[in-house]
Amino acid sequence: MSIYFNTILMLTNQDLQQIAQKGITPEQIDVQLKEFETGFPFLRLEAAASIGHGIVAPDEAERKQYIDAWNAYKAEGRKIVKFVPASGAASRMFKDMFGFLNADYDVPTTDFEKKYFDRIEDFAFFGALDEKCKANNGKGVKELMAEGNYKAVVANMLNKEGLNYGQLPKGMLLFHKYPEGARTPMEEHLVEGALYAASNGEANVHFTVSHEHIEFFEQKVAEKKDMFAQKYGIKYNISFSEQKPSTDTVAANPDNTPFRNEDGSLLFRPGGHGALIQNLNDIDADVIFIKNIDNVVPDRLKQDTVDYKQIIAGVLVTLQKQAFAYLKALNEGQYNHEKLEEIIRFVQRDLCCRKADIKDLEDAELVIYLKEKLNRPMRVCGVVKNVGEPGGGPFLTYNQDGTVSLQILESSQIDKSNEEYMKMFTEGTHFNPVDLVCAVKDYEGKPFDLPKYVDKTTGFISSKSKNGKELKALELPGLWNGAMSNWNTVFVEVPLSTFNPVKTVNDLLREQHQ
């Protein structure tokens, strides 16, 4: 009896109705339960990428050349979109402050708590917090602190009757101070869109948001966009999408049977950021920039970000132009043996994709191989020097077809028992701060079907719990990991000044956010 048939026996009519409403098939449930059983294979690594070995570090003349290439491309009237995954709630940012609220002491005790209160006036949200304290407690922040009522201050920051920062998405928190008023990350992304991603006098910005926050996002964007449109002399086209219910994954019990809620229904969980490949696939654009919501800086520090976004975009359109010229030659039969050698060099040297037995291929087989390798989505990823921040690293890895190419890997994809691989991971010189620019149309201008380029064997299983019961959760291949596994990938070194994530509330006190 097949596993699939077993799963069908496990599914009630109510289950079938529930999964149909999500746009999921019984076969998909079956595959997911099978994945819980078998797990996912680790990736086979060749080496960590480094400068000269998978990572490009353009010199000053090349940087200027790439910026010029990007500006020339934009002048052709191309459609460019800035894509910002923004559904993450900010609750993790405030883990320490929730801890303080629930602690059995009332005054700042840990170093984290002391720093928060010592520098509370330096937060961009201080003014708004002060007003909430006055409205709810009849006293401002400083007065409450003076009388030892520190918890009231934190409650006003986190709770619903205050700023509600414990529940809001990160994109809606006040991050940076300006004379005209504090700005949220959402606003900083609108500014960035105007500075490097605008063409035809328009900036297209797309936010992926969670269902419960979409109205709030729309309202805030409507309030702010005209001010920035006026400031930068452009028109904004701002769109939103939610993670699709069809990308949710079923949860399993430790014995790999479907986990059920107390009412007997199946428990589904969001499939992680890899689900967003579907949202990305729905976007009509020639080039798409992808950057996390919390990696923004105030205007005074934006120049490096703007320059390097244009540089990596210039690298992308330069490589794409060459790939398109080669594809045209291959498709029209305009090549000889020398030309094929030239194309092989481009695939191996510029796109870092190597095939060990390429010399054994006949010309006809070689043409098929080269077309297949060239005719796929392309991305250029900015990577920064490794400073011990958590994140994916740039690696040369073996693909399903035996070729070696560049990939971004998370630690979960690496076999921890393999000392050689762990050494590569821990000693890697660079890591990926989610700084991508993507070309998603083929040389005839048709959009690629992005889900076709996902490596489905790169999912991830984690242990979670619900109502005190253990469960297994399944994450889809990550958006910039396995979901883009079969894209052409190029890494470019970008300065650390372009990477300023906010993981805890006190990160906002770093010089880069002041």
Describe the structure.
Strands 2, 3, 4, 5, 6, 9, 10, 13, 14 and 17 form a 10-stranded mixed sheet that branches. A hairpin with a 5-residue loop joins strand 11 (393-398) and strand 12 (404-409). The chain has 514 residues and is of the alpha/beta class. The model is unreliable at 1-5 (pLDDT under 50). It has helices at 3-10, 13-22, 26-38, 60-75, 95-101, 111-118, 126-137, 141-146, 150-158, 185-196, 214-232, 277-281, 302-331, 337-350, 363-374, 419-427; strands spanning 45-48, 50-51, 54-56, 80-85, 202-208, 235-241, 249-250, 268-269, 287-291, 378-385, 393-398, 404-409, 430-431, 435-439, 460-466, 469-475, 488-493.
Question: Which descriptors apply to this entry?
Answer:
three-stranded antiparallel sheet; disordered N terminus; 16 helices; ten-stranded mixed sheet; alpha/beta; 514 residues
In short:
The protein has 514 residues and is α/β, with parallel strands linked by helices. Helices cover 37% and strands 17% of the residues.
Secondary-structure topology with pairs:
Elements: H1 3-10, H2 13-22, H3 26-38, E1 45-48, E2 50-51, E3 54-56, H4 60-75, E4 80-85, H5 95-101, H6 111-118, H7 126-137, H8 141-146, H9 150-158, H10 185-196, E5 202-208, H11 214-232, E6 235-241, E7 249-250, E8 268-269, H12 277-281, E9 287-291, H13 302-331, H14 337-350, H15 363-374, E10 378-385, E11 393-398, E12 404-409, H16 419-427, E13 430-431, E14 435-439, E15 460-466, E16 469-475, E17 488-493
Parallel strand pairs: 2-3, 3-17, 4-5, 4-9, 5-6, 10-17
Antiparallel strand pairs: 1-11, 7-8, 9-14, 10-13, 10-14, 11-12, 15-16
